[in-house]
């Protein structure tokens, strides 16, 4: 019981220190949060976000198609990249 309380207190203190450093301690002219905000707003980062969203959508559609194929025994055997799907 006491060990849990000490661990929880340590975790909360560590979390508070991390939040303080990220939001309040300047690294150069800006805080870490400000640096990250500026990086995220670049065109390259926006392009990366778009590409990741597209890749995630493609992966989701592929997984859904495979699940549908597995759930439908009349679909026959499907092969993908040399892997046999029952």
Could you walk me through the main structural features you see in this protein, from its secondary elements to its overall organization?
The structure is a single chain. A hairpin with a 2-residue loop joins strand 1 (26-27) and strand 2 (30-31). This protein has helices at residues 2-24, 32-40, 43-71; strands at residues 26-27, 30-31, 78-80, 83-85. It is flat and about 60 Å long. The mean pLDDT is 89. It has a two-stranded antiparallel ribbon with strand order 1-2. With 86 residues, it is mainly alpha-helical.
Topology (SSEs and partners):
Blueprint: H1 2-24, E1 26-27, E2 30-31, H2 32-40, H3 43-71, E3 78-80, E4 83-85
Antiparallel strand pairs: 1-2, 3-4
Low-confidence stretches: none
Number of strands: 4
Number of helices: 3
Q: Helix proportion of residues, in percent?
A: over 70%
Q: Which oligomeric state applies?
A: single chain
| Overall morphology | flat
- With strands numbered from the N-terminus, the spatial order across the biggest sheet is 1-2
Mean pLDDT, as a whole number? 89
Order of helices and strands: HEEHHEE
For the sheet with most strands, the description reads: 2 strands, antiparallel
Strand content: 5-15%
State the separation between the terminal residues, measured CA to CA.
51 Å
Question: Which class of secondary structure composition applies to the elements?
Answer: mainly alpha
Q: Gyration radius, to the nearest Å? A: 24 Å
């Amino acid at each position: 019981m006491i060990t849990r309380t000490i661990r929880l207190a340590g975790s909360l203190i560590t979390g508070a220190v991390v939040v303080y450093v990220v939001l309040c301690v300047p690294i150069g002219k800006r805080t870490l949060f400000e640096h990250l905000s500026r990086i995220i707003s670049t065109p390259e980062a926006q392009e990366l976000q778009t590409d990741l969203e597209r890749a995630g959508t493609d992966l989701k559609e592929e997984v859904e198609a495979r699940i549908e194929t597995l759930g439908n025994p009349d679909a026959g055997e499907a092969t993908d990249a040399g892997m046999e799907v029952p």
